[in-house]
C-alpha cells in the first residue's frame, strides 16, 4: 500500500477515536450501567462512580453500602430485579435539566415479594476535568417509604403445630398446656431436700445444681427443672409439699392417651444437631421442636405448619409501615382411622404385658387399634428425658421402647384357618371329611428322621374333621393337609394372602413371611408352616387382616390409618368362596364355644376366633419362649377383628390367657 495513502487512513482513524473519547454517555446509558450494578449487588461501585455529590453529602458510604448489604442479608432478599423505562429515541438531553426515568423494583424476601415503582433522577455534574450524569438517590430506593433515620424491623408469628385426632375427633396429640416444675432459690433453703427433689422429678442433683447456677438466675426467679403433663396431678401435688418447689403453666404438646398410643403417635422433641444441619434450609432453627418418633415424625411435613413473617418500617413517633407480610399457616389437623377408646381399652386389657394388638374393620380395612405394650410416657421425651429415666427404660426387661406392632412373630395356630382356606380352595381339603389320628405325635415315614409333629390334645375324638381340628387345634391334621396340597400350593396360597410382600400401610411394618427365602425346602418345614411354626412370621396388623376374607367371602382390604384414605381398597380378592367362608365362620364360633378359649365364651357377646401358641427359639440350645395369640370378632356384629399377641405365656395359661385379655376388650367396649 502507498505510504501516503496509509498515512491518510491513520489520520482519519485517530480523528474518529478522539471523537468517540470526547462523547459523553447519555443519562440513559449511565442509568443502565447503574442498574446493572444494582442487580448484581455491587453497592460499593454504585456509590463510588454513580452517585451525585448531593447524595454523597447526605449519605455516607456506610449508609449506602453497608446498610443495603445488611438488609439484603437480614431480609433474605433474592431475585432482585430492577428495570427502567427507556426514553423515546429522539430525546435530547439538556445538561441544565434533570433526566427522570420510571424505575421498576421487584424482589423476594423472607416475608414475601416486594414490588414498587419509583422515579430515578440523574443530574449532570462536572467533576474535576470530567463531566457526566450522576444518580440522585435516597433510602426509598431500598424499600418503599424508607427514609433516613427509619428502622427496618422483622417480626415473626409462630404457626401452631397441627393436631392428630382419632376417627371421632378425640385428641391424640394436641396443643394444650402442661407444667414446668422448678425451684425458687430464695424459698429453697434446706439443701438436704435436693436429693428428695431429684428422686421425685427423676433428675440428678447435678442437673439441679446446673439449673440453679445459670447466669440469669436471681433469688426470686423461678428456675425450671422438668416438665409434667396436665394429667400428672399427683406429681404436682407431691412437688409443692417440698418448700421452695413450685410449678407454673406452660404451652405444651399433650398426649391425652399417654402410653396407650405412645408407639403409634410418638412424640416431638428438641431438634438434634444432625436434623438441624439437614433441615435448616427448610426454615428450622436450633431451638425448634420436631417430630422424633411415630406419626409425629412421619407426618412432620404436614403437622409443622409455616411461621409467619412481617417486614415493617418503624418511623420515629409514627405507626409502623408494612413492607411485606406472610401470615402464619398452622399445621394440618390429621384424623386417624383409630378409635382412641378402643385403643385405650385394648392397651388396658393387655395389663402391661409385653405384646402387640391390632383391630381392623373387616369391611373397610380401617385400622381401629394398633398397640404395642408396654408403652412409655411421650411427654417425658418432649423436652429431654433425664439420663436416669432413659436408662431405666432401656434396662427394663419388658423393653417398653420396642415397637412390637411393627415387628413380626411366628403366628402359631392362628394361621390354621388360612391353611384351611387354601386347602379348601385348592380342592385338597374337604372340611367334612375326617382323618383318623392316634397318639400325641406323628411323622409321615422314617425319612423324617427324628422330626415328628406334636399335637396338644391327643384326646380329641376321631375322626378329626376341619371343625374338630380347629376346636382342638390339631397340628397333625393341618400337617397332613399341607402334605396333601403340597409345598407349591401352600406357598402360593400364603402369597395370595399377602405373605412375602410389604403391607400397604402408611407406616413401615415388618413384612410377613412364609420362610426366610420364601420357599419350603422340606416336608418337615411344610408341616411346620401349616400351623404357623418353622420360619413363618406374621405382622400383627397383617394377621388381623388375613381373617377378613372369612367375613367378606374372600376379599382382603388394604389396611388404612389416615381417615382421608379411601375406604375398602381391595388388596386381595377371590381368596375364599362364600360357601367355604361360611364353613370357617361356623368353625371359629365353635372354637370359642367348645374349644379351649373358654375365657372368651361370653354369655352375651358371641365371640368367634382362634387361639395360637408359637414357640420361639434362637437356636437348638435356646429354651425359647411361648408367645400366645388370640384373634377374635363378634360373630353376630363383627364391627372389628382383633388380633392380640402376648409374649412368654407358658406360665400363664398359654393362649387361653390371651383369650381372656381379648374378652376384657369386648366387655370394656360395652
TrEMBL record:
It comes from the Bacteria. GO terms for molecular function: penicillin binding; peptidoglycan L,D-transpeptidase activity. GO terms for cellular component: plasma membrane. Residues 358-666 form the Penicillin-binding protein transpeptidase domain. InterPro entries: Beta-lactam/transpept, Beta-lactam/transpept-like, MecA_N, NTF2-like_dom_sf, PBP_dimer, PBP_dimer_sf, PCN-bd_Tpept. PROSITE patterns: PROKAR_LIPOPROTEIN. Residues 157-311 form the Penicillin-binding protein dimerisation domain. This is Penicillin-binding transpeptidase domain-containing protein. It comes from Planococcus salinus.
Amino acid at each position: 500500500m502507498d505510504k501516503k495513502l496509509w498515512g491518510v487512513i491513520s489520520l482519519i482513524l485517530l480523528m474518529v477515536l478522539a471523537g468517540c473519547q470526547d462523547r459523553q454517555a447519555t443519562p440513559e446509558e449511565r442509568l443502565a450501567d447503574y442498574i446493572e450494578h444494582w442487580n448484581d449487588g455491587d453497592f460499593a461501585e454504585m456509590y463510588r462512580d454513580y452517585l451525585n455529590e448531593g447524595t454523597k453529602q447526605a449519605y455516607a458510604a456506610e449508609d449506602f453500602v453497608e446498610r443495603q448489604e445488611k438488609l439484603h442479608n437480614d431480609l433474605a432478599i433474592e431475585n432482585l430485579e430492577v428495570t427502567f423505562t427507556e426514553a423515546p429515541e429522539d430525546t435530547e438531553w439538556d445538561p441544565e435539566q434533570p433526566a427522570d426515568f420510571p424505575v421498576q423494583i421487584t424482589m423476594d424476601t423472607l416475608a414475601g415479594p416486594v414490588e414498587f415503582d419509583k422515579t430515578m433522577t440523574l443530574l449532570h455534574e462536572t467533576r474535576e476535568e470530567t463531566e457526566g450524569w450522576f444518580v440522585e438517590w435516597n433510602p426509598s430506593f431500598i424499600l418503599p417509604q424508607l427514609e433516613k433515620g427509619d428502622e427496618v424491623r422483622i417480626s415473626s408469628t409462630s404457626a401452631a403445630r397441627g393436631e392428630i385426632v382419632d376417627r371421632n375427633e378425640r385428641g391424640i396429640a394436641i396443643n394444650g398446656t402442661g407444667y414446668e416444675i422448678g425451684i425458687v432459690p430464695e424459698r429453697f433453703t434446706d439443701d438436704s431436700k435436693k436429693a428428695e427433689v431429684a428422686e421425685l422429678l427423676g433428675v440428678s442433683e447435678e442437673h439441679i445444681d446446673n439449673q440453679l447456677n445459670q447466669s440469669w438466675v436471681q433469688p426470686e426467679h423461678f428456675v425450671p427443672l422438668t416438665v409434667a403433663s396436665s394429667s400428672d396431678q399427683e406429681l404436682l401435688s407431691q412437688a409443692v409439699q417440698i418448700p421452695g418447689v413450685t410449678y407454673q403453666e406452660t404451652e405444651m404438646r399433650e398426649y391425652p392417651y399417654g402410653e396407650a398410643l405412645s408407639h403409634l403417635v410418638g412424640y416431638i422433641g428438641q431438634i438434634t444437631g444432625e436434623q438441624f444441619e439437614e433441615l435448616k434450609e427448610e426454615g428450622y432453627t436450633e431451638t425448634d421442636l420436631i417430630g422424633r418418633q411415630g406419626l409425629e415424625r412421619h407426618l412432620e411435613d404436614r403437622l409443622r405448619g409455616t411461621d409467619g413473617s412481617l417486614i415493617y418500617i418503624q418511623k420515629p413517633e409514627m405507626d409502623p409501615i408494612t413492607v411485606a407480610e406472610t401470615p402464619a399457616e398452622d399445621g394440618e389437623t390429621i384424623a386417624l382411622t383409630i378409635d382412641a377408646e378402643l385403643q385405650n381399652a385394648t392397651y388396658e386389657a393387655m395389663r402391661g404385658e409385653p405384646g402387640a394388638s391390632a383391630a381392623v374393620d373387616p369391611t373397610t380395612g380401617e385400622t381401629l387399634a394398633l398397640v404395642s405394650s408396654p408403652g412409655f410416657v411421650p411427654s417425658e421425651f418432649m423436652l429431654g428425658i433425664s439420663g436416669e429415666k432413659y436408662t431405666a427404660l432401656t434396662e427394663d426387661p419388658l423393653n417398653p421402647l420396642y415397637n412390637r406392632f411393627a415387628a413380626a412373630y411366628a403366628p402359631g395356630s392362628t394361621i390354621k384357618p388360612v391353611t384351611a382356606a387354601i386347602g379348601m380352595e385348592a380342592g385338597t381339603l374337604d372340611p367334612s371329611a375326617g382323618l383318623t389320628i392316634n397318639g400325641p405325635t406323628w411323622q409321615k415315614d422314617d425319612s423324617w428322621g427324628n422330626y415328628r409333629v406334636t399335637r396338644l390334645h391327643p384326646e380329641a375324638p376321631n375322626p378329626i374333621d376341619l371343625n374338630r381340628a380347629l376346636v382342638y387345634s390339631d397340628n397333625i391334621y393341618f400337617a397332613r393337609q399341607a402334605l396333601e396340597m403340597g409345598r407349591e400350593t401352600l406357598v402360593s396360597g400364603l402369597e395370595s394372602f399377602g405373605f412375602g410382600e410389604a403391607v400397604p400401610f402408611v407406616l413401615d411394618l415388618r413384612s410377613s413371611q412364609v420362610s426366610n427365602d420364601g420357599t419350603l425346602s422340606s416336608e418337615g418345614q411344610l408341616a411346620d408352616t401349616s400351623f404357623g411354626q418353622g420360619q413363618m412370621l406374621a405382622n400383627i396388623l397383617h394377621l388381623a387382616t388375613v381373617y377378613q376374607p372369612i367375613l367378606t367371602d374372600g376379599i382382603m382390604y388394604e389396611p388404612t390409618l389416615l381417615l382421608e384414605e379411601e375406604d375398602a381398597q381391595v388388596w386381595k380378592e377371590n381368596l375364599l368362596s362364600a360357601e367355604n367362608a361360611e364353613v370357617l365362620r361356623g368353625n371359629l364360633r365353635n372354637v370359642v364355644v367348645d374349644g379351649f378359649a373358654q375365657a372368651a365364651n361370653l354369655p352375651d357377646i358371641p365371640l368367634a376366633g382362634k387361639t395360637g401358641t408359637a414357640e420361639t427359639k434362637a437356636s437348638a440350645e435356646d429354651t425359647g419362649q411361648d408367645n400366645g395369640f388370640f384373634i377374635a370378632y363378634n360373630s353376630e356384629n363383627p364391627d372389628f377383628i382383633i388380633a392380640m399377641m402376648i409374649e412368654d405365656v407358658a406360665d400363664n395359661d398359654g393362649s387361653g390367657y390371651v383369650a381372656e385379655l381379648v374378652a376384657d376388650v369386648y366387655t370394656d367396649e360395652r
